[in-house]
Amino acid sequence: MLNRLDGRGGKASKTDDTDGQAADVLKRYETQQAARAEKVRVSTMEKDLYSLRSVVSTMTALTSKPLEPVRRRERTSNGTREAAAVALLSDFHCEQVVRKGETPTGNEYNPTIAEKSLQRFFSGYRWLIDFHRNAFAIRDVVLWLGGDLMTGHIHEENKETTASAPIATLLWLRSRIVAGIDSLLDDPNTETVTVVCSYGNHGRNTGKPFRAKGAVHSYEWLLYQWLASHFEGNPRVRFLADESAHQYLTVYDFDLHFHHGDEVNYQGGVGGITIPLNKAVAQWDIAKRCHYHNFGHFHQYIDTGRVAVNGSVIGFDAYSMSIKATPEPPQQAFYLLDSKRGKTCRSPIWVRD
Question: Where is this region: Disordered (predicted)?
Answer without folding.
Answer: 1-20
